[in-house]
Amino acid sequence: MTDVHDPHSSGTDLVPAEPIADPGLPEHQWRPTDVDDAAEKRAERQVAGFFALSAICTVLFLVAYFVLDIGDNWTTFAGFGASTMALGTTLGLALLFIGVGIIHWARKLMADKEIVEMRHPARSSDEDREGTLKALSDGLAESGIGRRPLIRNSMIGSVALLGLPAVVLLRDLGPLPGDKLESTIWARGGEQITVDGAQVTVPKMRISRDAIGTPILASDLEIGDLVNAQPEVLFNPERYYVEPEEVEGINLQVHKSKTSLILLRMEPGDIKPGRAADGSSRENWTVNGIVAYSKICTHVGCPISLNERTTHHLLCPCHQSTFDLADSGRVVFGPAGRPLPQLPLEVDDEGYLVAQSDFDEPVGPSYWERDYYDRW
Amino acid sequence: MTVGDMSKVATTNGTEPATPSKGSKRAGAVANWADERLGLGTAMKKNLRKVFPDHWSFMLGEVALWSFVVLLLTGVFLTLWFDPSMAEVEYNGSYDPLRGVHMSAAFASTVDISFDVRGGLLMRQMHHWAAMIFIASMMIHLLRVYLTGAFRKPREINWLIGCMLLLLGTIEGFTGYSLPDDLLSGTGVRAADGFMKATPVIGTYMSFFLFGGEFPGDSIIPRFYAMHILLIPGLLLALIAAHMLLLVYHKHTQWPGPGRTEKNVVGFPMLPVYMAKAGGFFFIVFGVTALMGGLFSINNVWKLGPYDPSKVTAGSQPDWYMGWPDGLLRVIPAWETHLWGHTVSWNVMLPILVAPPLLLVILMLLPFLEAWITGDKREHHLLQRPRNAPTRTGIMAGLMTFYGLAWAAGGNDIIAIKMDLSINQITYFMRGALFIGPVIAFFIARRWCVSLQRHDEEKLLHGYESGVLVRSPDGGYAEKHLPLPEGKAYTLTARDNDPEIDEIDESDSSLSGRQLRKARLRQRLQKLYFADNVQKPTAEELQESAEHAEHELHELETQIANGPNKHGPAEH
């Protein structure tokens, strides 16, 4: 190892002699509190004063805790909850005064002389290294692990195999995906099912307003209207022969993360119908200029919500992917890789908007097993 | 070897040595009891007076350490009321606007902590603020360590531990941020689901396993909770302990200066000064966090409401430390490959699954790359000023620029609205700037460092500008330069010169083609690395310039003395 500060090192060394010799540590400077008794006493009183202030703040904290109300009166005191504000301020000051007091003590009254400690290289001495190596080889020799490959290899093998239970035990973290991502509960409308032994056709799935759940009449929408919608089954499961618990709690959340829908009515002439998965035209997927698209962004799954009325563009607030709802959900800007899935619409006997079928492709973010078709 | 001249160092501040008072008899008995069982006497003999050097920048890591302690304390408080369950409940607490709303138990208990537990909102906000401070101070501490060369041998392993702490701190932040199950954090989890699904081949399996079925399922909050309060804090604690132990073993780095060398460490002893300062500083960090928690609101989840997969707020953004991958995610073009019925989402994989791990690996490799290029195998305990390692400083400037631009891209919607710009143009600009900006920053920072080095050299050779103007008899004005004080001059020269660039012996037949190529690459990198660095002046140069300056000054003074108005330069 090269001694970097050796002034006598040879010329081929990495580091030449220091151009200026180390003048050594400067002389210790005495502080006023070291030499002036009055200053020392003053500093002592200041430190104790800080601790006293802290104690006062702690008492105030306790007072605030028992006196001030909490609850939804949190708008008192300039937008902060009175209790939170008072507790935070008193606790903060109580802590700060202790910290300031201790540091003031250290700076003014504790010895402030710097002391020097020598460093040692991080590496062990050669002697220690040799000793360790010897201990290691002695120990290994005594275990006989080198001489008995059968024991060594069988042990390594059996311990390594124990990794498998560790992995396998995680198997029940969740079910396999299967085809769950391929379809949504929109598919329930129009299904042929058996109820109490009788063949029943489930009614076509009506489109309901999100949150309040009322079905939407095609005539309800004016040109330019945008409606957040869900399948009616989430609000009225009996009509679709679905058990209520199927659309409650966490099941409801799972459904909504796939079924959420945007309805938009535009001039029918603005719509440029694309092609469906089977190659047929999407001409009949709209009703009087009303189009329906999945609200779940094809990028990473945020619900899309920002509508530009004049252009029929819909913008995702998370990463700004922009989709053209007049043109089969084409991506016109942003990181999304594929267009929004479109829901084919029609009107039932009573004039309500219904889905002809499920989406003809999976909704939501892309995934490995997902297929793609070109719709233009 | 030069150890500082110790004769001038005070040995005590008092006039008489301290003598134990009678009251310490009982303490002595307790110490004896403990020592006979634990052997503390030997273990603490050295460490009680262990020396810690003083500099404001050494406080940054301390901020991180103490904010972690605040996180543990406030976090334990929160666990007493938080219910990590996604079971649906109807809220009936104090906060009127949400009464009757159906939500997860996690969200309801978060609102309860905020409105029905005294001090609950304070603790929630302190916990969140402490998390912000924890991650921010780790990042700034990392910059300090890198820019001053404190990561060099023998501290590379501590650098790696630090990088892991930053990674774990970020994951800890994300899981904690997701626990309240509010609309904003739920949207973040939804995006995380999209990230996982973008993983080729196993993506959907990862998603279904993590969420316990289809998104959002009812498992993610309890699972994040276990990670957030048990798994990751345990790892953080272990790594922080290792970080501290290595710090104690290596002893802290110090800035060069008179009496401060590679061989010693000069500073205050652990007991009492350092312990008091560090301990006092804990109360300061804790106190500032309490003031922030009481006075600055953060993450008002009750305003956003519970998570609903069909709803979102405009301007949705993750917590700030997740901003930069989110920015990359926003500006990447819509690249997706569809092949044989399968989808490869480059638009998600590159910014989220590739870029952040890649940057972490680059960060972790920096010490080893630098050591390989410079061929420096020595131990270093003296810090370097950023200007004295221009290429290193340039590299960090480039990385910081990349980080900053990506982070800004993560707020492209806010920038577009606040500054009335087109979001499309911001995005297109960022696509170029992310690649060009770091290169420009690298060259500017490196050049800037070299200029600062030249300025230092100038000060050494020609003295500092005294601010005293002198007029010569023929009417010319000149500023009098005075030599630097010895201590300052020494400090400026207390740095290593760059080593010679490697010579490659092309005729050496023992080198294989691969070894030769490697040697050539290393030589080229060395040339790039040391480039225009200024070497410190030699003793001869310094002496020569000192003589020259004295001569010049003398000449000027003679001229003035012989001149018409006889006013000499101001005495110093």
Brief synopsis:
The complex is a heterodimer of chains A (376) and B (572). Chain A has 376 residues and is an alpha+beta fold.
Structure overview:
- The complex is a heterodimer of chains A (376) and B (572).
- By secondary structure, chain A is an alpha+beta fold.
- Chain A has helices at residues 32-35, 37-67, 82-108, 126-143, 149-161, 163-168, 249-259; strands at residues 115-118, 192-195, 198-201, 207-209, 226-231, 261-265, 290-294, 306-308, 313-315, 322-324, 330-333, 345-347, 353-355.
- In chain A, strand 2 (192-195) and strand 3 form a beta hairpin.
- In chain A, helix 2 (37-67) runs antiparallel to helix 3 (82-108).
- Chain A is extended.
- Chain B has 572 residues and is mostly helical.
- Chain B folds into 2 domains: 58-311 and 326-384, Up-down Bundle (Cytochrome Bc1 Complex, Chain C), CATH 1.20.810; 460-562, no CATH class.
- Chain B is built from 19 helices and 8 strands.
- In chain B, strand 5 and strand 6 form a beta hairpin.
- The radius of gyration of chain B is 30 Å and the shape is globular.
- Mean pLDDT of chain B is 90; it is low at 1-11.
- At the A-B interface, helix 3, strand 1 and helix 7 of A face helix 5, helix 7, helix 8, strand 4 and helix 10 of B.
